[in-house]
Write a structure and sequence with these properties.
5 strands; Rhodanese-like_dom_sf; five-stranded parallel β-sheet; Oxidized Rhodanese, domain 1; single chain; 50% helix; alpha/beta; 126 residues; transferase activity
Length: 126
């Protein structure tokens, strides 16, 4: 009986640790995911490029939180829900990856990174 309890506890601990690890990962997504799940939907969609880059062109429905201004970025993300998915992009994936890692560190549970970024969007959106 004790052996069964120990085995059950070990299995349960393993399952819980596997699940919590997946929640900590940033999910990389492609253009199709943006088109199917983000555009025109009520989601948290953030362009982490500079205001100038955003003004020069951005994906519809995205708000601009400049990751290069870390203090302002940290203030801006306070307006987001930590329980709802957050979708991020930048020019080519470097800054959005850093922003995604920061959001996870700040307690956001579901973070998606459009790794192709705005460059991929401009090239392949049609």
């Amino acid at each position: 009986m004790i052996g069964l309890r120990i085995s059950l506890i070990a299995v349960l601990t393993f399952c819980l640790s596997c699940n919590s690890g997946s929640e900590k990962k940033v999910r990389q997504i492609e253009l199709e995911h943006i088109v199917d799940n983000v555009l025109g939907k009520d989601v948290q969609f953030v362009d982490v490029r500079t205001p100038k880059e955003y003004k020069d062109g951005h994906i519809d429905d995205a708000v601009n939180f400049n990751i290069k201004d870390r203090l302002a970025f940290l203030e801006q993300i306070e307006s987001l829900s930590k329980e709802k998915p957050v979708y991020l992009y930048c020019k080519s994936g470097v800054r959005s990856k850093k922003a995604a890692e920061l959001l996870k560190k700040e307690g956001f549970s579901i973070v998606f990174d459009y790794s192709g970024g705005y460059d991929d969007w401009k090239e392949n959106k049609n």
